[in-house]
Amino acid sequence: MADIFEEVEEGLRQDRAARLWKKYGVFAYIAAALLIGGVALNEYLQYSKAQSIEESAMQFEQGVDELAEQNWQQASAALEPLVSEDTEIAPLSANYLAQARLEGTADMASAVEALEAAANTETPIGKLSLIKAAYLKSNSMSRAELETYLGALTNDPSAFGALALELIAAKAVAEGDIEFARTTFNELRFLANVPQGVEQRSRAALAALPPAVSTPATPQDTASETPVEPVQDEAEPGPGATDGDQPE
Fold it and tell me: Any idea where the domains of the chain sit in the sequence?
């Protein structure tokens, strides 16, 4: 009797499973397809990314080789597409592209444009790109504009920050603000992480700057420094005077 009930229960379980599978089995197929498709897509993307990186590296190497051979146009053609890519090689490509444009055609504006595409204050290559662009633009900018352009880099506790301060101090000399330049060059002698070259140039600049001009004393200042003789009070008797009547 127990066997009959067990067979009935087993039949019911199989029937219930068959109905559930018939109703929801399609979702299981979809989930399996998505899983397999996702794995395949990930593999394809990884492969595609690796291929893209390899191709970019080969193109970058070609551009650098053309640059070394002073084939400016070929170097620019190879490097320019890499600048806009979202890869780690893009900022470095921008710097080489700027060199090709500057040395090949003396196109400073295009060189600055390439450097600005890589300029930021978050990575070393980005800071270097910003410094280079600032040097190229410094002749057409005031000191205030240059400080704004360099932004937070002037406060950066690194060699790049020292280079930014050196450029601003040189601009101050060009504008005739000798005292500001003297203060900044003096600061560069003692800041941490200042490259040796920057420190040496700062000392040379300080030696070349005209001496500080002392402010001459004004007549009012001279008068205030002259000691004043005390005025004798007319109410007080003089040295030969005595109290009371004079003797007969």
Answer: 24-118, 121-211
